[in-house]
Each structure stands twice: as structure tokens, then as C-alpha cells.
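sorry for the late reply, my laptop died twice this morning and i had to redo everyting from scratch. anyway the thing you sent over, i finally got around to it. pasting the sequence first so we're on the same page, its 146 residues, then the predicted structure underneath. double check i copied it right bc i was rushing
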Amino acid sequence: MSIPVIEKGTQQEIKLFQEKKLKDLLTYTLSHSTYYKNLFKANGIDANSINTIEDLAKVPVTTKDDLYKFNKDFICVSPNKIIDYVTTSGTLGDPLTFALTNNDLERLAYNENISLACTGATSDDVFQLMTTLDRRFMAGLAYFWE
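ok and here's the structure:
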């Protein structure tokens, strides 16, 4: 396990990397997400005005209620790209379902890999996972995928 170079970058390098990823994400999201197309239009937000992390303050916060009400409008891929569905436990209300693609699971695995690498773990180490691996705990999926 190794920590990617960008994860060890300076604060400025990381910020520039994040802002490039932000622009890519905005382009993709506004081309594919009904929810965010509608949100930007309803609030008069020009995606070209969002260039920095600080500019994100122009975008209204997405709430859990939004996710319940408009769940399908967040999906940015065709149904054949969805490889799994996970849900929250519903402890504080109704369970909330999320559609995941292979890229989503790869991203989750990447995050877990970095977390383990930060501990000094290597591929020679053995871990005992003490978490559920069902569809009620997304991090469980990431540990399994990694």
C-alpha cells in the first residue's frame, strides 16, 4: 500500500488539484444530473462562476430531505452502469438508497487504501474486519472492495 503523491502535496498543490477536479465534476454533473441542473437554474448559478473551493458557498447545501425527495434525479449514469444499491440503516428515519457504479466502489476502495497506508500497513499485513459488509454500511463495502 502506498500513499499517492498528491496526498503528500503542499496545501497549495492539493488546493489546485481539488479545484481542477471541481471543474471536471461540475461539467460532468451539470451534463448528467437532473437535480443539479434544476438547482443551478432555480438559483441563477452560473457554473463558470465556480472556480475555487471557496466558490462552493454559492451552491445551496444538499440535504438528506433533498436526497429523499429527488433520489432518482441525482443519478448521473444509465441504469446498466449501476452495479449495486446501498441503503442507510434508517435509524433516524426511513432508509435512504444510493445507486453505485464501479467507479463509486473504486473511489471508496481508494479512500480506504489511503487510510490503511497512513497507518503504515503493507500488503503483508492481515486485517480482521469487525464491521458488517451488508448493504446497510457503505464503508463495509469499501473494505471488502479494497
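The chain has a mean pLDDT of 87.
thats about all i looked at so far, will dig more tmrw
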